[in-house]
Design brief:
373 residues, single chain, alpha/beta
Length: 373
């Protein structure tokens, strides 16, 4: 992976990441393709209407179904899905934790039961890497010990210690496998933990960032804490992260969250929000959210967002989208998802341009002012 900083404006950064499959310009939002597909879209929709350079797939879900060995036999993620650009795969640890009623964490890994059939599985740092080697992602995340908030100081401290030990084991194994010719075109990121406690975040960041990782993520946020607590934690943590490697904030978030965290120095984001909200009738626009379920849109001839250049806004009215939603027509899910993802990716492009032109503060001010109208 090649990484370069193209411009900074305050703490905000415009960077370029080159992987084996694409050139990614940051700040970047990665659409979530949990099971190897962005819900309601296929690779042609992505290439034609959204044009992302990187999407996310989920290690836990792909491991359980169809199985990482099946994916490997079918040409890994790129060959299996026919999406030719970059993939990032998360470690699966969060899903093992959140989707299973019976999770046990020990010093070696995480024992969980499949949400599909109840079968028992054990994720270790090495096994998670082996799975992601089979998936063939461009960027893989390591196994970490995440903590649900609120949590005791003792639990967070144990989480940080275990995450660091697993990170040391993971990077040693990953680099050893590369020397054997396995995963030579793949990259690996560590995940900083610590809740919203500044001392814990600094400890985790310093320990992990001393290791030979290709990039670093901030995990364990956007899990119920106040937005300002999340922003403060990100701002505190980024100062301990290398400037010459990508910074990834996992599972975040709203358009406002993206703007605020780019402002604080984050490069990469993912979240199910634009796709999940689309399916539930909430559409994102330059002036705020549109609830397409409202009766006021019954005969509204305007597009979802008059300032949007996506295929949906250039073609269909709010009236038609409301009709499709109320009829539970499958076409609605596709069109709404195309619009929301286009909006998110366009927002990232606008922020990149603002950084390159050293006007990010003015962009941020205008972003909020437009939402007040």
């Amino acid at each position: 992976m090649q990484f370069q900083i193209d411009k900074t404006d305050g703490k905000a950064r415009a960077c370029t990441i080159k992987t084996a499959h694409s050139t990614i310009q940051t700040p970047v939002f990665m659409p979530v393709g949990t099971v190897g597909a962005v819900k309601s879209l296929d690779a042609t929709d992505l290439a034609t209407f959204i044009k992302p350079e990187i999407i996310l797939a989920n290690t836990y879900h792909m491991y359980l179904r169809p199985g990482d060995n099946v994916v490997a036999k079918m040409g890994k993620l790129h060959g299996f899905t026919k999406y030719p650009k970059s993939f990032l795969t998360d470690s699966g640890g969060f899903q093992a934790f959140s989707l299973s009623d019976n999770v046990k964490i020990d010093e070696g890994g995480i024992t969980f039961r499949s949400h599909l059939d109840g079968s028992k599985h054990y994720f270790t740092p090495k096994k998670v890497i082996d799975i992601q080697h089979n998936l063939g992602s461009d960027i893989m995340m390591i196994l970490d010990d995440l903590v649900a908030l609120p949590a005791t100081q003792e639990r967070i401290a144990a989480s940080i210690d275990r995450t660091t030990r697993w990170a040391e084991e993971s990077i040693a194994y990953f680099r050893a496998r590369q020397k054997e010719g396995i995963g030579t075109e793949q990259n690996i990121f560590a995940i900083i933990q610590g809740g919203t406690d500044k001392a814990f975040r600094e400890k985790s960041a310093r320990e992990l960032c001393a290791l030979d990782y290709d990039g670093f993520a901030i995990g364990g946020l956007s899990v119920g804490e106040a937005n300002q607590d999340m922003y403060d934690t990100v701002e505190w943590t980024t100062q301990f992260m290398p400037t010459n490697k990508p910074r990834y904030l996992m599972g975040v978030g709203t358009p406002e969250d993206l703007v605020e965290n780019v402002y604080r120095g984050v490069d990469m984001f993912d979240c199910v929000m634009p796709t999940r909200n689309a399916r539930n009738g909430t559409l994102f626009t330059s002036f705020g959210k549109v609830n397409i379920k409202k009766a006021c849109y019954t005969t509204d001839t305007e597009p979802i967002d008059p300032e949007c250049n996506c295929m949906v806004c250039q073609t269909y009215s709010r009236s038609y989208l409301r009709h499709l939603f109320r009829a539970r027509e499958i076409t609605y899910f596709r069109l709404a998802t195309i619009h929301n993802l286009y909006y998110y990716l366009h927002l990232m492009k606008q922020m990149r341009e603002a950084v390159l032109e050293e006007r990010f503060e003015a962009f941020r001010t205008a972003f909020y002012k437009k939402r007040e109208q």
